[in-house]
Amino acid sequence: MTHVSKYTMNRKIENRINNNLMNAFFTSADRGKPLLQSLLTSTEKVMLAKRFAIIVMLEKDFSYYRIEKTLKVSTSTIKRLHRRLLAGMFDPIRNAITGKRSDISFLETLEIFLSAGMPSIAGPRHAKRIRELRSRRSR
After folding, report:
1. What number is the average pLDDT over the span 60-67?
2. pTM value?
3. 11-25 and 64-71 helices cross at what angle (nearest 10)?
4. How far apart are CA 24 and CA 19, in angstroms?
């Protein structure tokens, strides 16, 4: 079950981060938006959009305080994603933000993104697959 803060975000900020999420994964937001709308619950969309926004804001050197107040997320969430960002775990997402080409497919990038900040619940085989994807992208 996903968990989202009980504090509501500013509607303008929420719309903006949702649009940024769509644009990062799909060249045409018109095609991608209905796909994600049907695939994800509203809570999952908010959670993924917030994760994506945290990564973008960290890339742009926003302070933890500003991220926390803007997105209504905890400092521990920001720290966890920041550690993973510094370790290079979000390079495919970083490439999507900057427009660089990646050697891994969209679905593999999505798999890395979905594992962002989440403990491995699928066991050692899933953890091994994620490590292989990350090592493949760093070549």
Report:
1. 90
2. 0.59
3. 100
4. 9
CA angle 49, 137, 114 (to 5 degrees): 25
- Select from 13, 126, 1 the least CA-distant residue to 69: 13
Residue 103's contacts (CB-CB under 8 Å, 6 or more residues apart) are: 136, 137, 139
What is the per-residue DSSP string for 5-54? -SSPPPHHHHHHHHHHHHHHH-S-HHHHHHHHHHHS-HHHHHHHHHHHHH
Cα–Cα distance between 78 and 96 in angstroms, integer?
20
pLDDT at 60 exceeding the cut of 80: yes
Q: Residue 92: is it exposed, middle or buried by C-beta count within 10 angstroms (0-12/13-18/19+)?
A: buried
Torsion sign (Cα): 77, 79, 80, 81? positive
Evaluate if residue 1 carries a pLDDT over 50.
Answer: no
Sign of CA dihedral 12, 16, 22, 26: positive
Provide φ and ψ at 36, rounded to 5°. -70, -35
